[in-house]
């Protein structure tokens, strides 16, 4: 279970056994033993591995298929599925995302984009405005010190 997860995640992140071994301060042979199931990493090494692969200890130790591991999102990141854009540009935010981020009918959302990655982000305007206030206050405080 853990061994297979380590192997699949190591390959997903395109790490050799040697590079992974260096990162967790063990030998390449130790990583090979973990992956083959001959040995198990201690809890400290498991935490290091989870951090390297940006997952939780629970995810590292779960019995998951290769497909599940391939689609595993890093800690704090979520994959809610694919949505279809309607004729007028509308999208439906998945229920799980609305619940997690407390998005309700009538909420105002800000849509941001980035040229290089062609990526979009959606966030609640109140969060963005609160962040903008913090930045503005910090700039004002720095100007007063000058």
From TrEMBL:
Record-level Gene Ontology MF annotations: DNA binding
Protein's name according to its UniProt entry: Helix-turn-helix domain-containing protein
A Pfam family per the record: HTH_3
SUPFAM superfamilies the record matches: AbrB/MazE/MraZ-like, lambda repressor-like DNA-binding domains
Gene3D superfamilies in alphabetical order: 2.10.260.10, lambda repressor-like DNA-binding domains
InterPro entries per the UniProt record, alphabetical: Cro/C1-type_HTH, Lambda_DNA-bd_dom_sf, SpoVT-AbrB_dom, SpoVT-AbrB_sf
Alphabetically ordered keywords of this record: DNA-binding
Protein species of origin: Oceanobacillus bengalensis
């Amino acid at each position: 279970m853990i061994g297979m997860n380590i192997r699949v995640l190591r390959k997903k992140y395109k790490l050799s056994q040697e590079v992974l071994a260096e990162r967790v301060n063990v030998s390449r042979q130790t990583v090979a033993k973990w992956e083959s199931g001959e040995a198990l990493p201690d809890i400290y090494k498991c935490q290091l591995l989870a951090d390297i692969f940006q997952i939780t200890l629970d995810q590292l130790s779960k019995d998951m298929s290769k497909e599940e591991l391939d689609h595993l999102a890093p800690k704090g990141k979520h994959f809610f599925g694919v949505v279809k854009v309607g004729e007028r540009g509308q999208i439906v935010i998945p229920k799980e995302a609305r619940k997690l981020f407390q998005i309700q009918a009538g909420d105002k959302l800000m849509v941001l984009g980035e040229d290089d990655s062609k990526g979009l982000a959606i966030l609640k305007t109140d969060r963005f405005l609160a962040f903008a206030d913090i930045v503005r206050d910090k700039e004002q405080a720095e100007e007063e010190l000058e």
